[in-house]
Design goal:
Strands 4, 5, 6, 7, 8, 9, 10 and 11 form an 8-stranded mixed sheet that branches. Strands 14-13-12-15-16 form a 5-stranded mixed sheet, sandwiched between helices. The protein has a 3-stranded antiparallel sheet with strand order 1-2-3, with no helix packed on it. The protein has helices at about 25-30, 85-100, 105-115, 120-135, 140-150, 170-175, 220-235, 245-265, 320-330, 405-420, 420-430, 435-440, 440-480, 505-520, 565-585, 585-605; strands at about 40-45, 45-50, 55-60, 210-215, 280-285, 290-295, 300, 305-310, 315-320, 340-345, 350-355, 365-375, 375-385, 390-400, 485-490, 525, 540-545, 550-555, 560-565. It has about 600 residues and is of the alpha+beta class. The N and C termini lie far apart (about 80 Å). It folds into 4 domains: about 10-175, no CATH class; about 210-355, no CATH class; about 365-400 and about 465-605, Nucleotidyltransferase, domain 5 (2-Layer Sandwich); about 405-455, no CATH class.
Length: about 600
């Protein structure tokens, strides 16, 4: 316990009726110190609050007195009259208690009305008072909220830890609003999050963040155990003779963990965050023998021998050939990215590269346009634009794998694992070989079902990675030739993707494209366009040909024919630069007008370019 602090001047003020009287009067109140942390207690909004840990102790005010609807309330649980509904009484009690606690009454009533659909009057009122007080910075526990409401005549029973009396509805809703297990850092400024999208800084003026690339390193069991020992030794400081340089990494880890806690608290999460990975500096040995990176880094990636080493813990892991080639390419970039090695608490290793380049938009220009479709995946087109001409350099439709066959097998396997039957076995005979079906057990069926679902997840991830890799290749080719790069996405409404098969896949691909733009120094933008609109005059066309591979539309006004999938990419380009002209951005508007005129000339010269 800490030493006694001088008596707080706030406590010299005469207390209201009932302060520190009865069974709750103990040594802590006599000395004005917190029984939990030993810090001093101060009076705040009628409550005794610990300045150190924020613990709320014994209220120092009497119950509120108010007259609800021609009824007199004298502080007890008796009321005169019977024309007051329990809901109206709870609202009046919330208003009175919020006024005494310094809590916005409107916020408490708003939460109360929202919770009345799921819980009773007392439960909703108690949680509403607790949540509104927490949001306004006033310290009050859920138990204390129940006690205060009970004094006002609103019955709200607090759930006891031992399973005693208490409302079951309050138990279920109470868990979601419990405070974090660590003290709330109310004395710190709010967290400032970083990040930019395609070179455009955030509106709130936060510091821009870098783009990143991650490579997973496959580790064997021995190296995994050694990496786990490294993580635990640094985080928990288990070794007395731990290297002095590793203390720095513990300090970085502690700051990351503190930021993670603050971010979860600001997001309204009540559970503590997972332990973040340990970040180690990396030194690269290039194939020609040159060294890149910090020479004092504890991790070494030798690209000549193709291995990753952490000498202080005896970790030596061979790297696959594709990873070595990718790391060589990244090290030769200008400007070179910064690299770190992530060591997770489970002993897994990841190499992370991060950098941030400013985007520029000028001719010559390489543009990649991506059209998202909730049923057919993505279509990708790339354009080349210089001072005199426009050209569609490529077009490709990218569709994810069809998982109907896998989902049917996984459903049958799961059904057999939950409730084995001969009928399910006969259905599985259509898909599984006889030797597998003969020895199939419930545990084996469950394991096969999990592997089948995992295969679907991996294929979806491969689809997204393939798209990002193609766009990255286009951007890097443009940068090597001294051209600017632009990535345009025609985003689909996220609400239309809910509960669809491609929901997570398409949204994850869009996020990765935005990160790619920051990492590679490309401009990125979102623009709305339709493939049904005529690229020449803007009239809505009519479908004249529909095949498995194409949907041909014709304009009733100018009689232009185009493929819907290609027409949407032209309209994306045209709408993006037309919007730039409307915004009248000095240099950008001049560039946009030039590009629009080139697009019109190209379409007049090649009217069938968007058809085949």
């Amino acid at each position: 316990m800490r030493g006694l602090e001088p008596r707080a001047p706030e406590l010299e003020i005469p207390r209201l009726f009932g302060a520190g009287v009865g069974a709750r009067l103990n040594l802590a109140f006599e000395l004005n110190i917190c029984p939990e942390c030993g810090w001093r207690l101060v009076e705040h909004n009628g409550l005794l609050v610990c300045e150190g840990c924020g613990l709320v102790l014994a209220p120092v005010y009497e119950p509120p007195k108010f007259k609800p609807a021609d009824n007199s309330f004298n502080g007890s649980n008796s009321f005169n009259g019977s024309n007051i509904s329990s809901g109206g009484l709870a609202q009046r009690a919330l208003e009175a208690l919020a006024g005494e606690l310094g809590v916005p009454a409107g916020a408490a009533l708003e939460v109360y009305k929202r919770l009345r659909r799921y819980a009773g009057v007392g439960e909703a009122a108690a949680i509403a008072l607790f949540v509104a007080a927490k949001r306004s910075g006033t310290y009050i526990s859920l138990k204390r909220a129940c006690e205060l409401l009970s004094k006002c005549g609103v019955k709200a029973e607090y759930p006891r830890a031992g399973g005693g009396t208490g409302s079951s509805k309050l138990v279920s809703v109470w868990g979601r609003f419990q405070p974090l297990p660590y003290p709330a850092p109310t004395w710190r400024p709010p967290l400032v999050r970083g990040g930019i999208v395609g070179g455009v800084e955030k509106r709130n003026g936060t510091t821009p963040g870098p783009g990143w690339r991650v490579w997973k390193v496959r580790v064997n069991r021995v190296n995994k155990d050694r990496s786990k020992a490294l993580y635990n030794d640094v985080i928990y400081k288990r070794k007395v003779n731990i290297q002095k340089g590793l203390v720095y990494y513990w300090e970085e880890w502690a700051r990351m963990f503190e930021n993670a806690k603050r971010m979860r608290e600001e997001a309204g999460k009540r559970t503590p965050p997972k332990a973040p990975p340990l970040l180690l500096l990396v030194r690269f040995v290039m194939p020609d023998g040159s060294v890149r990176g910090n020479k004092n880094a504890p991790a070494v990636i030798d690209l000549r021998k193709g291995e990753l080493r952490i000498p202080s813990y005896g970790v030596v892991q061979k790297l696959r050939r594709s990873l070595i080639e990718a790391l060589i390419e990244e090290n030769l970039l200008e400007p070179r990215p910064d690299f770190v090695l992530q060591v997770t608490r489970r002993g897994f290793l990841r190499i992370v590269a991060h950098r941030r380049l400013r985007a520029r938009l000028e001719l010559p220009l390489r543009i990649a346009t991506i059209d998202e479709n909730s049923r057919h995946g993505h279509s990708l087109a790339h354009w080349y634009i210089n001072e005199t001409k426009v050209a569609m350099a490529g077009f490709e439709k990218m569709r994810p794998a069809n998982h109907g066959f896998r989902r049917e097998i996984a459903a049958l396997l799961q059904s057999f694992a939950d409730k084995p039957s001969e009928e399910t076995k006969r259905q599985l005979a259509k898909f599984l070989p006889p030797e597998v079906l003969r020895v199939l057990t419930t545990e084996g069926a469950r394991e096969l079902a999990e592997k089948t679902r995992g295969r679907e997840t991996r294929l979806n991830s491969d689809f997204v990675c393939k798209l990002v890799a193609k766009v990255r290749k286009l951007v890097r080719e443009a940068v090597k030739k001294g051209m600017s790069a632009l990535i345009l996405v025609e985003p689909i409404d996220s609400s239309s993707l809910r509960e669809t098969e491609l929901q997570g896949t398409l949204l994850r691909g869009r996020k990765l494209l935005m990160n790619l733009a920051v990492y590679e120094g490309a401009e990125v933008g979102e623009v709305s366009a339709s493939g049904k609109v005529c690229p020449r005059c803007g009239t809505k066309g009519a479908e004249v040909v529909h095949t498995k591979r194409s949907r041909i539309y014709q304009c009733p006004k100018c009689h232009l024919r185009w493929d819907r999938d290609k027409g949407v990419h032209y309209n994306m380009l045209y709408n993006y630069f037309a919007r730039m002209v409307k915004e009248e951005c000095d240099d950008d508007s001049v560039l946009a007008e030039r590009v629009l005129s080139l697009l019109r000339e190209w379409l007049e010269k090649h009217p069938n370019a968007l058809m085949y």
